[in-house]
Amino acid sequence: MGTTMDRLTRRALGAGLTAAWIARPALAQTMQLRAAHTNAIGEVQDEGLRFMDRRLREITGGKLGLQIFPNGQLGNELPMVEGVALGTIDLAVPSHAAFANFVKEYQLLDMPFLIRDYGHLARVAGTPAIAQLATAAQARGFRVLGLYSSGVRHLMTRDAVTTMAELRGKKIRTQQNPVHVAAFNAFGANATPLAYGELYSAIQVGVVDGAEAAYTNFVAQKFFEVAKHWTTVGWLSLTAPVVLSERKFQSLTPDLRNAL
Q: What's the burial of 242, exposed, middle or buried (CB within 10 Å: 0-12/13-18/19+)?
């Protein structure tokens, strides 16, 4: 009798330990949101997402984090936002200029020389106007979690440009945004919208004579190898909304939504 009970006890304990071991990974598992951007590793958007990942893991006790795909690994900006809409990408940090193709109200931020400097941008970011843009995005299925600065935009060119008049006839790459195209055509250039991932080779082979860009892009992506000349213009202060699909946001538990 004692031997039978011992065997039953050992089996029960063994089954319990096995069940606990099987359940253990599920309890410890972190939900990772697939997060995409087009900056190089170490640039503003990449560092911002890495900070966000650390803070999410701290706040949620390891329940939620990010799996970050930098440098356009999941596509250029327009396909990246489409991925968020379709659910193949959880979170993306496109430029507001690219995002405006999906939520046209973001074209407000594309007005040339609208933002004077970083201090001015910080004040604008806290205004009702920016909150209204986020509301417009939500109506189209996007939850905007925040807004990064993506740098003040200047000019990088194959040949020297010392005045705006010297842009006349030059093919200047712009983002795929009608306001940017109209602005550079008004400056006298031949505005040429191209995806960011195509820009280095386009300058290298002469498809375009230059591009508008932030200095961080110029350095991190080594555009200085093909565009030797840098001209400070400050025509635009580009921002980058942190975008999650509203459907994905609502699928999370309340504590994870609050953490985001």
A: buried
The CA distance from 28 to 187, in Å, is: 56
Residue 243 has pLDDT above 90, yes or no: yes
pLDDT at 18: 43
Determine the residue type at 112: P
pLDDT at res. 4: 46
For residue 119, the tally of other CB atoms under 10 A from its CB is 9
Task: State residue 247's pLDDT score.
Answer: 94
What domains are defined for the chain?
153-239 (3.40.190.10)
Q: What is the pLDDT of residues 82-92, one digit of tens each?
A: 999 999 999 99
- For tokens 């842009």, the residue is 167
Kindly tell me if the per-residue pLDDT of 23 is higher than 60: no
CB atoms near residue 209 (< 10 Å): 21
